[in-house]
């Protein structure tokens, strides 16, 4: 075999050497210089011969440019036409692609030229990992829309449609402004395409922190970029069953509109489409990119190792004055045994500890190296050594050294790590997200804040922010309740000359006089019909003034000016009405009366016909954008909580204040409003229409005042065409030639008012922008004060735990805490930028614990991982560049035959077995503890996705799991893992189909390989899925994932897959299968041998139907085992214990008082005798019945009654 060579280039992830590819040469030989970037970026100054005296060169890299780069994508970034075709087509794993242009390559071998280049490289890699999926989503959406327009049958052929990188949402409208703790957000409504069904609780669609793109022209020119702020477990339902509501924050708007979606006071509303990319999660990028931007190259922590890859490790600075440590175990602050002094700079004495030699070496490395790297293969106890090193540091240093920061990749791993520390140290703070651990519940920063003193100086900031909220509300109310500008505003902007304004003033006076006359006439009619009031309601005392209603001089505001109020006795008199506050007449409203309409919260202007058209359009588009079967959309509840925990800072159930916008706007009223005479006769407003609002319909055209209707044809336009000529409605002409504005036609009036309203709207928008900016600034200042308070809380504790995402998010808090020691667990799974963004300037000691031969960091863009090495962690890069590190070598998890599966990966030095694993139990009911059950059953593809399924493997996994449960294992003892999300869903369905009254296989945990990193279980069933004629094995060629998949089991490991295909397409699998064939000949084949634990009878299974012959988990014989009662078990052989079985034989016991045998079944309680007997009564009659009843009656004379009612009884 040629495994050694292939292994270095395959599972160790070094690309195959191609002499014609300079980037590969750079990776292989570690050269520096222009080969660092792709040929499009190389610096050249060659003169162009065709253009004399004009030097020609490609882009020169300005490393400091990242300081000015926007983290939020620019519109031009999204519309750029250079998205990599490789990413658009498929996430292939071939290595034949060049690096993407204008994107730097991570320098895996060798040093960087400078800290500036280092920061620039990782910033650009992360930013493009965010950006490329967004560009692909927009391009894919536009192509899908265009294909549907050009070919209406496109939706009927889903097999011809490419895998899309987007999820689409239609009919997006602005509903409300929401005042959140950080900024003013937008509550929007959207509708899903028809036929799309979503299980929201398990869906990662629109989860908090997702970046979404919105456009009203299908992304031709218009684009808005926003983040989802609030979705909840399921989006709130809107006004109909198709509508959902979420809250977003508008990050970037090409129209720079503070209301986000245009002027919502108009009669028509813009409708937007919203997209989200299927790959990438923005919240994970935002804080990392922001932190990298803030890092000064001259202050980059551990720069000699990160940039120059120096091998010269030193003592941590804080440990230079204290080299002697006591490494003995402490519990409750007291040493549990004799002291174990060591000098961390010298060789250590040999103490009797529960550690092997490599673990002791790792402990010394962690304590003595300022940057310590410890590799822990599966089951070698790297977490144990890491927590023990922390215990030594906490025991040997006082609180003056500051808290130790622990960082893990996931919340679950962090909880486990902190729970280990909690055994000996209770001063722990867990920052960020939500913990599921009951032990850590009281250690959450959120809970500790409740016990701390209130932050000084923060109250006035909250009051100031509340005032801004009121000002924003006032401006919004003015926009909606006063759509017409005032005459004073027209004067202010000089919109009309004085004469024209005078005509408008006269119009107002005339209308006021007319309204009063009409009101008086109506009042007279009403008075004639009034009846005398025969009863007077009792006066109602006025409400007591609130403390806020009192003025500063102590006088209340109950009394008005002299003569300005009513006595209390008059408040109950029906003949004395409350004076109605008459609103001032706006002459502009009278002037535009014919164009003013009223709409309610339901937008009455939107007709049923329009709704029907949109529904039909949705039905059509639903076929194009159908993606309800997208398995990548579904995630485990654990994963969803993991994502949400990284976004949500703390539990907050408070209801956010909001202002309804658009058609949903409602006036806020303290009391029911009264429709005045002015409203009825001037505004034509109906009583009971309090919730309606005025809008100006700028599309309305006034008909001529006189029209000959004698020959009117409904279908022909008989309006005077001269009055409709464009030049007839030129505003400038009327402004200049006609001083009497009441003579202007309605279209001209609307043009004039539209011009004034736009100016007023711009002023209002400017005011809103300033207020919103001030709102965010105050919110940021509140967070800064809280950060300082949180830092004081954290410094009072000894251990601080957080995830890598939280470390970047709370980087300002870490800088304020000024830690000296940081321990990073799962370091090989984190991108280098994640760790760099967690480092602080005060840090003196960095401990990295992980295993780069297990899971690598995951990026959204596969090309960036493969060609730009974004998936190479800092941990792996330091190991590659020969920084001193320690590798643990004794595994304590797997039986030796299971460990043998990963020998090809850990061969130098080989992984050794701890004596404890030799005592692991064998699996009951199966001959082998390790078995590769090979088959040739073909896989299937999940529609519209790259996911795969294999029904044969899913059924076999479910049947085998059920069989193991019958052997006495619990669902917690078994885990089924696979590399494909589609297969995971299929296995879960298969397990549900196996449910029985006596056991429930659906309780067995089914996980992805990536999601099961760091976990273990007694029995693992691995479904490999891939089996096809094309020879494609996908994820199975990635050695890191294979390593994780094969190293999770402690007692039993069962693999379902196509062994022939794997050996043909992968040298790694060829080596693994070869080891099984050479060393464990009976551990691979097409039939799995089960064995009855009672009779020793074997049963070979190859197909799911084969399990039907042994429904009880035993064999086909009769059980025939002697039960406790002495009978033989007559059921078909079963694996379950007899203690819960019921013996159906006749009971052998005899009643001592009557000597009758018991007539019940053996398993039943004997109770009383049921044998029928005949007895003679004293009267001579005979009775028949149960023995116990007859005997009881005969012994009790009072109960002895003859059933024949004879005279003697």
Automatic annotation (TrEMBL):
It comes from the Eukaryota. Residues 1-22, 520-582 are annotated as: Disordered. Residues 355-498, 733-857 form the DNA2/NAM7 helicase helicase domain. Keywords: ATP-binding, Helicase, Hydrolase, Nucleotide-binding. Residues 549-560 have a biased composition (Basic residues). GO terms for cellular component: chromosome; nuclear RNA-directed RNA polymerase complex. Residues 1-11 have a biased composition (Polar residues). Pfam families: AAA_11, AAA_12, ZNFX1. Residues 165-278 form the ZNFX1 domain. CDD domains: EEXXEc_NFX1, NF-X1-zinc-finger, SF1_C_Upf1. One of its GO terms (molecular function) is ATP binding. Residues 870-1059 form the DNA2/NAM7 helicase-like C-terminal domain. One of its GO terms (biological process) is regulatory ncRNA-mediated heterochromatin formation. Belongs to the DNA2/NAM7 helicase family. This is RNA helicase.
């Amino acid at each position: 075999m040629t495994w050694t060579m292939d292994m270095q280039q395959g599972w160790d992830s070094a690309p195959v050497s191609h002499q014609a590819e300079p980037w590969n040469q750079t990776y292989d030989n570690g050269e520096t210089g222009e080969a660092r970037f792709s040929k499009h970026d190389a610096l050249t100054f060659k003169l162009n011969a065709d253009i004399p005296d004009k030097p020609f060169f490609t882009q020169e890299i300005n490393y400091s440019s990242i300081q000015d780069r926007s983290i939020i994508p620019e519109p031009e970034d999204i519309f750029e036409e250079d998205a990599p075709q490789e990413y658009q087509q498929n996430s292939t794993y071939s290595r034949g692609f060049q690096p993407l242009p204008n994107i730097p390559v991570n320098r895996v071998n060798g040093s960087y030229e400078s800290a500036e280049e280092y920061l620039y490289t990782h910033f650009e890699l992360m930013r493009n990992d965010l950006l490329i999926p967004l560009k692909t989503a927009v391009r894919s959406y536009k192509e899908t829309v265009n294909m549907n327009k050009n070919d209406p049958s496109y939706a009927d052929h889903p097999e011809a449609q490419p895998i899309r990188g987007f999820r689409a949402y239609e009919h997006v409208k602005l509903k409300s402004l929401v005042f959140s703790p950080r900024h003013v957000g937008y509550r929007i409504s959207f509708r899903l395409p028809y036929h799309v069904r979503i299980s929201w609780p398990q869906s990662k669609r629109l989860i908090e922190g997702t970046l979404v793109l919105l456009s009203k022209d299908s992304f031709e020119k218009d684009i808005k970029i926003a983040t989802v702020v609030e979705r909840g477990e399921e989006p709130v339902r809107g006004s109909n069953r198709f509508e959902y509501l979420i809250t977003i924050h508008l990050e970037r708007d090409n129209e720079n509109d503070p209301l986000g979606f245009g002027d919502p006071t108009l009669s028509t509303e813009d409708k937007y489409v919203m997209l989200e990319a299927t790959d990438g999660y923005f919240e994970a990028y935002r804080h990392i990119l922001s932190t990298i931007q803030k890092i000064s190259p001259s202050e980059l922590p551990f720069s000699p190792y990160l940039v120059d890859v120096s091998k010269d490790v030193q003592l941590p600075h804080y440990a230079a004055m204290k080299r002697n440590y006591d490494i003995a175990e402490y519990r409750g602050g007291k040493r549990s045994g004799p002291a174990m002094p060591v000098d961390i700079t010298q060789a250590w004495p040999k103490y009797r500890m529960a550690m092997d030699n490599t673990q002791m070496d790792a402990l010394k490395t962690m304590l003595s190296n300022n940057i310590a790297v410890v590799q822990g293969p599966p089951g070698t106890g790297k977490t144990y050594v890491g927590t023990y090193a922390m215990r030594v540091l906490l025991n040997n240093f006082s609180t003056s050294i500051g808290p130790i920061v622990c960082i893990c990749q996931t919340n679950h791993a962090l909880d486990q790590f902190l729970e280990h520390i909690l055994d000996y140290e209770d001063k722990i703070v867990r920052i960020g997200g939500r913990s599921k651990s009951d032990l850590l519940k009281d250690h959450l920063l959120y809970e500790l804040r409740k016990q701390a003193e209130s932050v000084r100086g923060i109250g006035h900031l909250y009051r100031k922010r509340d005032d801004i909220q009121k000002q924003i509300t006032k401006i919004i109310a003015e926009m909606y309740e006063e759509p017409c500008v005032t005459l004073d505003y027209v004067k202010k902007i000089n919109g009309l000359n004085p004469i024209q304004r005078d005509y408008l003033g006269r119009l107002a006076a005339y209308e006021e006089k007319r309204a009063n006359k009409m009101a008086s006439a109506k009042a007279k009619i009403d008075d004639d019909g009034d009846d005398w009031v025969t009863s007077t309601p009792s006066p109602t005392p006025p409400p007591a003034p609130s403390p806020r209603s009192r003025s500063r001089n102590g006088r209340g505001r109950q009394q008005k000016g002299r003569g300005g109020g009513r006595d209390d006795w008059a408040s109950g008199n029906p003949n004395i009405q409350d004076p109605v506050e008459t609103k001032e007449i706006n002459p502009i409203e009278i002037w535009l009366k014919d164009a003013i309409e009223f709409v309610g919260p339901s937008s009455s202007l939107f007709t049923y016909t329009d709704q029907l058209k949109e529904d039909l359009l949705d039905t059509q588009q639903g076929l194009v954008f159908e993606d309800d079967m997208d398995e990548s959309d579904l995630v485990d509840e654990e994963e969803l909580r993991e994502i949400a925990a990284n976004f949500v800072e703390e539990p907050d159930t408070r209801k956010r204040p909001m202002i309804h916008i658009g058609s949903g706007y409602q006036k806020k009223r303290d009391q029911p409003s009264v429709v005045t005479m002015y409203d009825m006769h001037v505004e034509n407003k109906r009583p009971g229409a309090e919730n309606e609002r005025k809008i100006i319909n700028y599309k309305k055209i006034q008909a001529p005042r006189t029209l000959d209707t004698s020959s009117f044809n409904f279908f022909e336009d008989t309006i005077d065409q001269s009055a409709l000529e464009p030049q007839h409605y030129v505003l400038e002409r009327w402004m200049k030639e006609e001083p009497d504005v009441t003579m202007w036609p309605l279209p001209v009036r609307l043009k004039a008012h539209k011009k004034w309203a736009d100016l007023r709207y711009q002023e209002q928008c400017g005011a809103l922008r300033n207020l919103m900016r001030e709102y965010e600034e105050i919110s940021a200042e509140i967070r800064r004060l809280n950060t300082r308070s949180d830092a004081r809380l954290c410094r009072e504790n000894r251990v601080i735990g957080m995830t890598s995402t939280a470390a970047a998010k709370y980087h300002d808090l870490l800088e304020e805490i000024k830690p000296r020691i940081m321990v990073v667990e799962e370091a090989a799974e984190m991108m280098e930028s994640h760790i760099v963004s967690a480092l602080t300037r005060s840090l003196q000691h960095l401990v990295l614990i992980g295993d780069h031969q297990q899971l690598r960091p995951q990026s959204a863009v596969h090309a960036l991982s493969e060609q730009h090495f974004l998936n190479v962690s800092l941990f792996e890069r330091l190991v590659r560049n020969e920084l001193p590190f320690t590798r643990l070598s004794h595994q304590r998890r797997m039986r030796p035959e299971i460990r043998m599966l990963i020998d090809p990966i850990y061969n130098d030095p080989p992984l050794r077995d701890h004596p404890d694993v030799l005592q692991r139990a064998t699996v009951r009911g199966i001959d082998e503890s390790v078995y590769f059950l090979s088959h040739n059953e073909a896989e299937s593809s999940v529609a519209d996705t790259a996911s795969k399924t294999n029904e044969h493997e899913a059924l076999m996994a479910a049947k085998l799991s059920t069989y193991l449960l019958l052997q006495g294992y619990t669902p917690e003892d078994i885990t089924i893992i696979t590399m494909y999300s589609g297969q995971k869903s299929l296995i879960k369905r298969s397990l549900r189909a196996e449910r029985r009254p006596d056991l429930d296989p659906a309780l067995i945990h089914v996980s992805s390989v990536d999601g099961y990193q760091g976990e273990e279980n007694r029995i693992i069933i691995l479904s490999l899925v891939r089996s096809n004629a094309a020879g494609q094995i996908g994820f199975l060629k990635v050695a890191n994932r294979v390593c994780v998949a094969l190293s999770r089991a402690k007692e039993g490991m069962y693999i379902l897959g196509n062994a022939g295909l794997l050996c043909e397409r992968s040298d790694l699998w060829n080596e693994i299968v070869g080891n099984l064939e050479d060393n464990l000949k009976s551990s691979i084949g097409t039939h799995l041998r089960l064995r009855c634990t009672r009779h020793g009878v074997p049963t070979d299974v190859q197909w799911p139907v084969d399990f039907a012959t042994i429904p009880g988990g035993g064999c086909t014989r009769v059980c025939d085992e002697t039960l406790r009662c002495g009978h033989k078990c007559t059921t078909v052989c079963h694996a379950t214990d007899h203690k819960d079985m019921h013996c159906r034989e006749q009971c052998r016991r005899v009643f001592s008082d009557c000597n009758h045998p018991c007539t019940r079944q053996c398993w039943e309680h004997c109770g009383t005798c049921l044998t029928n007997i005949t007895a003679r009564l004293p009267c001579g009659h005979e009775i028949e019945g149960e023995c116990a009843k007859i005997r009881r009656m005969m012994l009790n004379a009072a109960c002895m009654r003859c059933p024949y009612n004879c005279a003697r009884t």
